[in-house]
Each structure stands twice: as structure tokens, then as C-alpha cells.
Amino acid sequence: MDHKMTDGTNGYPGKGYKVIGKPVPLIDSRAKVMGQALYTDDIRLHNPLIIKILRSPCASANILSVDSSAALALSGVKGVLTGADFKNSFGVLSISKDEPAIARDRVRYMGEPVAAVAAETSEIAARALRLIKVDYEITDGVFNSKEALKPTDQPLHPELNKKNNLHKEILQEFGDLDQGFADADVVVKKRFRFASINHGFTEPHATQVSIDNNGNITVYSATQVPHYLHMAMAEVLEIPEHNIRVIKPHLGGGFGGKSDPFPHEMIAAKFALDSGRNVKIKFDREEVFFSHHGRHQTDLTMTLGYSREKGITAIDLDTLIDGGAYGSFGIVTTYYNGVLLQGPYKLPNFRFHVQRLYTNKPMCGAMRGHGGVNPRFASEVLLDMACAELGLDPAESRLNMIHKENTLTTNEFRVTSVGLHNGLTESIKRTRWKEKHGKLPFGKGIGVACGFFISGSALPIHWNKLPASTVRMTIDYDGGVTVYSGAADIGQGSDTMLAQMAAEVLGQPLENIKIISADTRTTPVDLGSYSSRVTFMAGNASRNAAIRMRRILIEAACELLEMIPPKYDRPDAPDNFFRQGGRKPDFEQGFLGPNPDYTDGFIIEDGLIRSKQHNASVTYLDAVAKALEFGGILQTSGTYRAPKLGGKFKGAGAGLSPSYSFTAFIVEVTVDPETGFIKVDKATCAHDCGFPLNPLTVRGQIEGCIHMGLGQALMEEMVYDNGATQNPSFLDYKIPSAFEQPEVDIVPAYSDDSEGPFGAKEAGEGILAPVIPAIANAVYDAVGIRLTQLPMRPDRVLAALAKAKDKEAAK
Amino acid sequence: MKLLNLTINGRDITKAVSPGMTLLDFLRDELNLTGTKNGCDKGACGCCSVMIDGKPMLSCLMPALEAEGAVITTIEGIAKGNNLHPVQEAMIEMGAIQCGFCTPAMVINGVHMLAENNNPGNDEVKECISATVCRCTGYNSIEKAMHLAASKMREAARDGS
Amino acid sequence: MTALDKEFDFARPKTIEQLCNLVRECQHEDRHFIFSAGATDIMPHLKSEILSPDIVISLTALHALNTIEKRGNHIIIGTLTSLSDLSKNNHIQQHLPALGGAAHKVASPQIRNRATIGGNIMVENRCIYINQSRLNRQSHSPCFKADGNICHLVKSIKRGDDILCQARFVSDTAPLLLLQGSTLDIIGPAGPREIKLADLYLNDGMESKSLMRGEIITHIKVKIPENSASHYEKLTIRNALDFPALGVAVLRRGNGDISVALTGLNTRPGVFHATRENYETFDDMIVDICQKASDFTVTYQQDFFPRGYRKNMIPVFIRRGINKILEGAKS
């Protein structure tokens, strides 16, 4: 093994940047490695009440009564809350606010909160829970999508006025499907089935709330979306938003699982307001599984047409996704199941029909690769089948179908930069694909798959005209730069990324940049860490704030140097800038233009600001002092908002993003035909994240996605027994260990996005989806079976092998 | 409540604890040593690993009273002042830290492994971290960090001799 | 919830005599006591309130039981020896390497530093319906092991049947110890006794061990095998942490006889023997012992792997074990 550090740039051209593009450890690594980083449960508020939640043992029941008198009578108990204490329901999407903080009248899943206790100690709170008497009337539950489609008089959500448990149905068709299949040389069709999986972040949910004498609360919570929590909390608690301050401390992983506002957050805030005391709640691991919000259990049938000449000619997709008891991000998930198939290949004719169902199980929501992962498995496996039937090389065939730069997809996604072609070409070379594919001994196989993902959703969840991200930047008299951003560092390293932006533009060492983030009182609004939006959006905002700050400093330097300051024009879009439908994307005022230039004839480095032309310089600190003379503070803001994008049809907004990432995976496996075990030996990844701002963290995201994809592929699944979660522990929910993780080779897939900050795009999610079909395709190469059900457990491998053998014998 | 005597990060401590209290809760709630994390409380995530009499063990699976007379090192006791242990340095350098929740336990595990053998093989490294769940890194960078720390320690040992 | 919210007492006797006195006291006062050694299995049971004792009696101060000695042609293992110490012990590595290997396959390095060999052979039988949080258990009607009236695995079982509970036996170390014909030193308020390890295990997931209340195992006596070799193979989906979905120990004697012990499948371990001279060829013997072992009942319980798969893997794992032994003999 090579333990030496390379320059860490993975072969990307350096562009002469000082901080950007260099491997930078996360700026909070030192605190984390010393155990000093404070996560929500590590914060010590003065004398907090401890909250515990009573959860329903029934998956489906009417609540006839809740008697908490005995609990309230227990010494040390300071309050009990029930469903009656919360009038307003909530949900992350304004179009499906269907979840109560505590169940009212009925429970819809096992583990749903039915009451909560605040007490002086954890022991008293636990004892009090036992004293609460809940009288349930068990009702018939609905436990899978097919049942949920059946007519019923008693749907989970009668407020929708539907005759079954359908939550959302989307049918979209683009192009001419019949023509597409007619154009195909081969049409392949299969049914696929996917288990629900959990994020498995290591830090369980936790919230603490402090309260001051005027009833203002400060909510410390393990959340990916402080802003959405802020809004939801104000609505549920019916207090003004400015009375609430939400702070995200260090966060132990999210992966989408902390991107909803949660009942326990509402419960904690309510207890604080009611009691006037600080409060604290932390989940057990079981409670994390009961709350779930993971990837939807999915049943889908896909038909794919493929032509030697044209590539994929058509895809027809019919999908049921099991949403569990509440909406969460489900409507977005429903769309993403379809629209994310628009890349990475040209897809001229396309139909998808997705139905999200309510069932009596913990709700599903957003999880890394949101909505796109399961259909991607189907399409990449079918593509592999089509190539096999036609005797084509599946890797090279893929090369020919990849979107060209600056094109529109069939459903009018604007695709700008694409680095996949180079990345896949190089991966084919590096893995010696042609010597291996179809040529390895029985049991050894190699497979390929590609992926595509958004770099942030172009449209906000709550429609308003505010920028998607705003960054405030200050420089104090000491020269220290502070970046204030609402973006939530959830371990992915967004704080470091924001600091890199400022350091590069302002010519400062990284240590000179301090980050204050994810605090709704002190930082401007950022919509949060989901949909892989932070690098693109908050990154641009930070970069823009820094450019404005730079201009102020240069002006001050010019004043000291008695020079005329440079004139800044709003730059034109670069030549290769893509014009959608003949029109230039419409950028709002305040945006500095796509990747605004800051080469202003000055260099800031080593504490000096120097004019290149006059070879004259002033110190950075003198320029700061000069700039401070006028207003006493030095402050700028930078914003990002996506340009106006998309078609004019209903649902055109789903999946719109200012840019898209692309991924190719080649995976090598060993399949043991006796035991059915699949061992992934090596994964080669080419991920086009535009220009990689920090190769060290990009690598981390790639390796992390492989781990998570491997888990879904081979072992992870939520097991339910009539709605009861059967494996709510890290012992029974199988997360792969270091032994299962393959060796990883990272191949450059360079592109330079014209709108991304320093050319960057997302690197956190899109990587995951192709991992799984690449494994399945490698298994086919190894032993000749097509696995259509996840996880690809050894028993399923053996069953498929036996079936293949029978088929062979029947011939 | 029973009296518990033990040494934690070089400090002798005597405190009354209830029999139901785990060592993990004792560290976090009684001593405010919050670097040791509670990820599952049932021994399956590995995040609560601390060094007890020189060996990493799971503090969530141990009644505090079982630690009577023990010498314990938590993550807070690994660095010497501002001087990080080679494992800590290597974890930073290799980008083996993302969310950081498993990091303290990974460090404890690695420090012990390298104290026993500063030239571990790949399988030994994998085993050392195999039952500590890291959901962010995919383990690759942590493994690299352990190897890097090992080579740093071998170098230091050579220079020292 | 997982905090140890119920109050209980805790004692840590330093000698066997203190221990026996304490047990007598508890019995006299009708206090519900449990023993704990490494506590790595007891703690999750306590946290999930599967066990709710009045007092936990820790055995960890009985330092005399933390030893491994060679006495004549026996290895005497003190039951408080940690699994990691056991794996690393010279006597074990020299005379019982497969046992060390099996101990090394238990759980995780951090758990093996704490967990004891005594605890592992006494490990509580497990079931997906009982080894759950209190809330999860409440979501089903209580099973026999939870003082209820149903077994969720085999719904036809009625109170009064011989076996009420199908919870699985999951010790990784017991199979090899069984094949070595180990005996146990036991001490309790009624005095010392010695039993065969095979007699420790009962055919019921609820009362799966034959120790009487208040008894503890102090030593495991293993005869040093002469001219034989053994191997333990474990089925888990990942190479860490998990209890065995199937564990197969194989022992081959110098005379060619083969013995097999199974774990992870049933309420108790299964042990099978084949005598070489009863078969024409070595292969005939293997086929036969695989057949016998495969007939061993696998309870209707999914431990990630479905029942049928685990059953099918029995002969595969036996053959693998035998091959490992034969390879070892060659090298």
C-alpha cells in the first residue's frame, strides 16, 4: 500500500490557485481528533430537564385516551405533553404538512410519539413514561404498497380525500415512447425490488433548548437544515420566528436523515417554553430507526429500448414507492424517481409513472442520492442486459451516449459541463477493462455503471424571492476574515469549503479565515445541507462576498498608493456559456455573474497588496485600516440564486439544477458460487465534480459513497413484521465493516463548470447510485446471473444460480 | 450509590455512582469528558471505546463500578498538551475525519494497535477498526492514516535508538 | 429505553467464599440476582430490560479465575480469562489453536478485551423477538421467554410442550470445546461439582443451561488433543461484530475419525461423530456426516440469512473446515 502523500490533486490541473484545488484537511479536524468538538449532546446547559418520548407499540391504532395523571404526580416530573398540546402539523415540504409532533387520535406507525415527559432526571422521566396509560384501539394496518393502492374507507390520511392510501402520483411522458421502442434493436424489461434502507449516521438525533427570561429560545439541534427547522418550529409553536434561534453544533453525519424538522425538536421547544427551563433530549439508536426517514422501499418495472446506432431509445418506468406514515420529502422523491433518469445519457423518449403510498411504517424521506438510486440500478442493469444481448461492450457503448456539454435534455434540463466521457475512457484504460470484461474465470467479474445528479435544487422548497444562499463576510481591524453562513457543515466539510473560497479570493492563508455557520441568529439564510447544494450555492455566495470584499480592499490600497482603482464591469457570460432555448439564463440582480472574475491587476499574498502594473504595494493590514476609516466595520454580502431554468410544463421544476454531476464506476468482484457471497475487490471511480476544490474531501466523499452503496447492494435492509421494525440496532441492521470495503482507485473526470464556484459541482451524492448496478453487472460478468432484488444477499445469489442452472439443463 | 476510585487521564478520581450507571455515562455526565461518544449504547457502533488498563474497551457495556481501580485513558488524554499522537496527526493528514463522531474511538483503537505493533499488516489494521462504525469515510482513509501513523512511529523509534 | 433506569444493587465479591455467602444471602432474602463477568452480553440485556435483577453480582474480582494453566495433559482455562487473552495465550496457541481462532471470531476486538470465555460458553440464547428494546417487545404479544403465551417463531407451541422457546444458541467457542470433550468445574452454595460441557446445554431457549441458581463455572478443563486437528468456520454477512448465523467446528482425529459441532442454528449446539472404520472411503464418511449434520433442526429464525440458506451451508462449511484441516496437515 502506498502511504505517501502525493500532491493530492489526483491529476487535475492546478490553475495556479493557492488554496483551491489543494488537499486541505477539514478545518475542524483538530478539534475532532482531540475529542473537543462539541456535538449537540455534548453541550452542557444549566440544569436541564430531561425529555423522554413515549412511543406507540402499535403500528395502526386509534388513541382512545391518554391518562398522564400518575406521571404528573411523580416527584420530579415537570410536564407531560400529548397530541392535544400541538394544534399544527408540519412537514419539510409546504405541500405536505401532515405530521403531528405527537400523535393525535390515531397512531400511524410503531414508534410514533404518543406522549412526552420532561423531568429532573433521566431515571424519573423513564419511570414517568411507564405511568402514562394509553388506551389503543388496534385498527387494520397497511404494510405494503400494493395493499395501500387498494380502496379503503379509512386511509391513513383522510384529509387528502382519497379512496386509497395514495400520497402522490406522477405520470410524465416525453418524446414518443412507441417510436422509441420501435427504433430499438432490443427491448429489455424486468421487475426490480428494493428494500428500504437507513442512513446509519453515527450520532443519534439530539436537541437541547435554552430559554431566557423573555421567552426567547435557543435550539441546539443535530439538523441539516436549521432554516427549515426555524420556520417549522415557529409555525408549530405559534410564536414569532425571531423568538427562536436555531444553532447546529458539530453534527455526526446526516446523509439526508437529519434534513426534516422532527417531532422531538418541537417537543423540546414546547417543554422549554412551558416550563421556562432548559431542556435536553437524545435518541437511543432504536429511536433513530423508528424515526427512519430513509430510502423508500421500491417495487419497479422498467422497460428499456436500445439501438446500436442511437443508444437508449426509450425508457418506460412504473414504480411504487412505500412512503410509510407521513410525507417528509416524499413528493420530491416521487419526482426524482423519474426525472433523474434524464442523465447521464441522451434519452429521447421517456415515460415514468411513480406512485408514493402511505403505509403503517416509519416514514421514508431523503437519503443520499435521493430518489435516483433505485431507478438508476434498474436502468444500468437493463442497459447491461441490452449490450449483452447485442454482443456489445457495455463500457464503450455507454461512452457513445453521454450528454454533450451545453445541451438540453428531453425534459429541458440544462446540462452544462460534462467530464464523464474523459473519466470513463480513462477508467476503461486504468482497469484494463477490455482484457477483463467477459474474459475472467468463472467467479470473477467486472462491471460498469454510470450516474448523474443535481448540484443543488434550483428551486427552493418554500417559494420566496430570497437568494438560495447568502454569505456575510467581515474583516476586523486585526485583519481576520469571518465568514457567516447558514450552511450546515454535517461532516462533509462545508465550513472548510467556505473558508477556501474566502482564502483564495482574499489571498489569505486558510488559518486567517474563521467560520461562523448554521446559526439562525448570526448567519444569513442558507437553505441547508440537502440536494448537494452547498458547494455550488453557498460556495458561490462565499466567493461573491469575498470578491466584493476584495474590491473594497483594493480600493483602499489604491487610495493609499494614490492610484486610480480598477473599474469593475459585470462580466459577460463566457463564450461557451450555454443559452437555454436561445435565451441567456436570467441571473438576478446582485449576482456577480457566472464565475465573476477577480483578476484586478493586484496580488494579495504574504500580507501585502501589490499592484502588478506599478509594482507598488501596501500591507494588507494598512488597507484594512484604511477601509475601516469610513464605516468602522468592513462587511460584505454575497448571494447565490439559480438562473431561471426549465420548461413550461407541469412538474418542470423537479430536478432542475444549475449544473449536474456525472459518475462512472467500474467494479471488480469475486462471487463464491458455493456460498453466494459477493466480495467487491476493487472500485474505480471517475466522478465529474467540475473542478475539485479539495481533492482530499472529494476522495472522502467517493469512498464514503462506495461504502454506503456497497451496504445497500449487499446487506442493508429495514426488516418489518406487520409494521414493527425488527432490526432497529447496529447489530441487526448490517452496515459493512472495513473488511468489506474495497480498494478504491480514483480517476480524474475533469470539467470546469462555468457557473460553479471555481468551476466546482457536487461530489456528495451522485457517486452513490452507480456503485450498486456496477456491482450487479460485475456479478453477471462473474457468474452469469441478473440480480433484481436488493440487497443481493448470498441466498438470493444461490437461488439465481440454481435457476440459471435449471434453465441451462432445460435447454 | 457506591464509591468508585479510578484514574482517568492521569487524574485520581473518587466519586459516588449508582450501580446502573455505565462507564460511558460516568465519563460524559459526571466528568464532562464528552469526547467519548454514545452512538448506540449497546456495543454495536464502537464509538464509546476508551483505553482501560491499556486496552480499548466499550465504555457503554461496562458498569462504572467495574472500573474500580482501573487506569483509563479517554480521547482527551491521548495528546500530550498540544502535541498530537501520530495517529491523530495521520488521521488529519489523510482526511480520515469527516463528521468526526467515530474519530475519538478510531484514535483509541489505533493508538492501542500501534503500541502493540508498529508495523501492522492490512488485515490487522482492518480488524482494529472493523467494529467501529464510520459511515462517512468508507474506512479507506482511516486505514491509510493508521499505516501512515505506523510509519511515523517506526521512524521515530529508529531516530530514537 | 436503554438507560439503566431500574435501580439495582451491585456487588463484586473478591473470593469464591464471599461469592457463595452472597448468593446464600440473596437466596435467603429472595432477591433476584444475576452474575456478570465481562458484562458485554449482560449489559444489552439489562438495558433492554430483558433482565431486571435486584442485584448484579460481578465475578470480575475473582482474579484467581483469570488464568490458563497446563496441568499434565490438560489445559485448565479459568472462566474469567478474556477472549483476547485466550487467543494470545501460549498454551492455547500451541495446543488448542483452533479454539484461539474461534475466540478471535467473537464480536469485536474491543468486546473481546472485556468478554470472557466463561461468558461466551454461557452466552444467553438469542431470538429476534426477545433481543429487542422493550417497545419492540411490546409491539408483539409477549412470548414465552417474556412470561407470555406464544412463540412467534413456531406459533403451534403451547404451554406444557417440552420446548417452549426457540431462541438460538450462539456461542462461537463452545463447539470446539465440545469436540475436545471438555469438562467444567462448577461451584455454588451447594459445593463444587464437575460436569461435561455437553451436559451444560439444554434443549430450551428459555432455560438453555443446566447450572443451578447460584452456581458459577470456575474452570474449563480441556484434554490436550493428541494427533488431531480442528477448525472453526463462521457464517456472518460481514467480517465483524455479528453472532454466528451458523458456526461449524470440525475435528479430525489421527485415526481419521471426524467430529462436527454446530452453533447458531438451534436452541443448543449439535454434535456429530463419524468413525473412519465404518466407511469404505474418506469421502463416504464426509458425505454421511454432512448428511447427518444437515438433518439437524434449524429453528425458524432469520439471522439475516434465511433458514433454508443456513441449512444449506452446513455441508459447505463442514467441507471447508475439513479442507482447512487437511491443508494444515500438509503444510
Q: Could you say what the CATH topology of the largest domain in chain C is called?
A: Uridine Diphospho-n-acetylenolpyruvylglucosamine Reductase, domain 3
- Approximate helicity band of chain C: 25-40%
Major sheet summary line of chain A: 7 strands, mixed
Strand content of chain C: 15-25%
CATH class category label of the largest domain in chain A = Alpha Beta
Examine the coordinates and then state which fold CATH places here, giving the name of the CATH topology of the largest domain in chain A. Answer: Aldehyde Oxidoreductase, domain 4
Q: For this structure, what is the CATH homologous superfamily of the largest domain in chain A?
A: Aldehyde oxidase/xanthine dehydrogenase, molybdopterin binding domain
Mean pLDDT of chain C: 94
Rg of chain A (CA only): 27 Å
The CATH architecture term of the largest domain in chain C is 2-Layer Sandwich
Q: What share of the residues of chain A does DSSP label as strand, in percent?
A: 15-25%
Q: Runs of chain C with pLDDT <50, length 5+?
A: none
Biggest interface, residues from each chain: A-B, 59 and 59 residues
Given the C-alpha coordinates, what overall shape of chain A results? globular
Can you count the helices of chain C? Answer: 11
How large is the count of helical segments of chain A? 19
